[in-house]
Amino acid sequence: MKLSQFIAVAALLLGAACLALAQSNSSIDGTATGRSQFSTVQIAGDQSDGLPEGKGKAALLRTCVQCHEIDVVTRTRYTESGWRRIVGIMVERGAELSEPETADVTAYLSKYFGKTNVNKAAAAQLEEELGLTEKEAQAIVSYREQNGDIKSLDQLKSVPGVSPDKIQAKAEAIAFRD
Q1: What is the homologous superfamily of the domain 116-175 according to CATH?
Q2: Nearest to 11 by CA among 128, 80, 89
Q3: pLDDT values of the chain reduced to their tens digit, one per residue, 178 residues
Q4: Strand 116-117 to strand 174-175: parallel, antiparallel, or no bridges (unpaired)?
Q5: Positions of CATH 1.10.150.280 in the chain
């Protein structure tokens, strides 16, 4: 098991334990609610500094910090499908998100803490998410159409017409599979 997979599994298990604990708490007025609204506001207030503004941030803070430190949530980058899977697992385990909120949180995490799969992304997505020029993004798309999937950072940096320095600078945000 890779270290990133181990961390993800550990975070999921910790989240489930925190959720069970949170659901056993009572609200400030003593009525059983399944969540402590006071601690949600307090935690969200403490942890929201440094997170970019965007649709889905409020739902992320309200829901995810019930069980996780925000840096645990954002430490590992995933592709959009990876975030969709992780958020789905959290909802299955009791995270209280409506379907629209689930989509918003997934989109937020994908945008600010995501990876771009260079083998599936359209040219416009490569431009926007990796800061490439239109010509560089199209060079990647053309290369993979002619040569198949790109397998490594070194192979991506060798694509004619693409700046290896730009690719290296965005290495943390690049994926080669979902």
Answers
A1: AF1531-like domain (1.10.150.280)
A2: 89
A3: 555 554 544 454 444 444 433 333 322 223 233 332 223 333 344 455 688 999 999 999 999 888 888 888 888 999 999 999 999 999 999 999 999 999 999 999 999 999 999 999 999 999 999 999 999 999 999 999 999 999 999 999 999 999 999 999 999 999 999 8
A4: parallel
A5: 116-175
